[in-house]
Amino acid sequence: MRIGVPKEIKVHEYRVGLTPASVREITHHGHEVIVQSGAGEGVGCSDDAYRHAGARVVDSAEEVWRAAELIVKVKEPQPEEYPLLREGQVLFTYLHLAADERLTRALMDSGAVCIAYETVTAPDGSLPLLAPMSQVAGRMAAHVAAHCLEKEQGGMGVLMGGVPGVRPARVVIIGGGIVGENAARMALGLGADVIIIEKSPARMQELERIFNHGVKTIYSTRLAIEEEVLQADAVICGVLVPGAAAPKLISRELVGRMKQGSVIVDVAIDQGGCAETSRPTTHDNPTYVVDGVVHYCVANMPGAVARTSAFALNNATLPYVLALAEKGWRRALMDDEHLRNGLNVAFGKMTHPAVAEALGLEYVPAEAILEATNMH
């Protein structure tokens, strides 16, 4: 199979779909890899490193898209990339479609087969291709919150860990999943008081064990969220409903009552965000202020630590890329129900129920697409 790796063009996105190590594995299995020149520069991987790994390096994105049967990216296609997609071409990347109707329509119009990292599942119900980036984003969120609390950034001027005789910051984390756990780990390391709001009693027990009672867990209700958000110096939103839009747990009215100079870091912004006042920002201009509350809503947070993120992502995606290349997308999806859960769009049809519901689109099961295309 011919696999293409275009350079990412989203603002301040430096990650790359395949590292030279991944390319070496893929070419060892007899497949062809075409990489756009400069695709790996942002993570310290030169064109020569790709050539040495067996890739063919080409100058333009158009060459990559035109030649490849399977495109491996990091972020969703940008508007200037929409025309490069073609019917039957396989796209494997993060998509986060529930919050982006324009992109969804473009993918459906293209006729491409679009598999989203963030909805591929594991037997235990976890999301193995989202997990490494959730770990990165969660760990970053605590650092970001600490930075945004500085007076110069619009914050209240509180040091995350305080000093002897002065209380530390109170950090409230909504959602005790991978983002929440990693955010708590870093916030605790910085010396903050940490509260995690979570709705699963079993997960709360697990967090108690992980942190040896170092964090406080509170069962998630609307009242609990309201009370804790009003007391918080920093709120980190890490709630995820796979494939679906993030639930709006912090109302505009509640933001208006928060402490002046407090901070919201909305890690869920890829799926629309957990606060009604959240809107996507970029690393170029990451924050804005609403009612005296600093909002950080960068939609590709891990892009700031591109090298760590790209290598962590490749560790997770490589087995799936190899499966798609070795078997072809139909057989790979038929053989693996968990990879099949990653199928979001195919031949103009919406194949993920949560995305279909979020955008009011007709849902066609992935199995129906596989059955129909297998007959031709």
CATH architecture title of the largest domain: 3-Layer(aba) Sandwich
Q: What is the spatial order of strands in the main beta sheet? A: 3-2-1-4-5-6-14-15
What's the number of structural domains? 2
Query: According to CATH, what is the topology of the largest domain?
Result: Rossmann fold
Average pLDDT value?
95
Label the overall shape: globular
Strand percentage lies at: 15-25%
Output the structural class: alpha/beta
The CATH class of the largest domain: Alpha Beta
Model description:
The chain is α/β, with parallel strands linked by helices and 376 residues long. Helices cover 37% and strands 16% of the residues. The chain has helices spanning 20-28, 47-52, 61-67, 101-110, 131-148, 178-189, 201-211, 222-231, 252-257, 306-327, 329-335, 337-340, 353-359, 366-374; strands spanning 2-5, 32-36, 56-58, 70-72, 90-93, 113-116, 170-174, 193-198, 216-219, 234-237, 263-266, 287-290, 293-296, 343-346, 349-350. It has an eight-stranded mixed sheet, sandwiched between helices. It folds into two domains: 2-119 and 306-374, Rossmann fold (3-Layer(aba) Sandwich), CATH 3.40.50.720; 131-299, Rossmann fold, CATH 3.40.50.720.
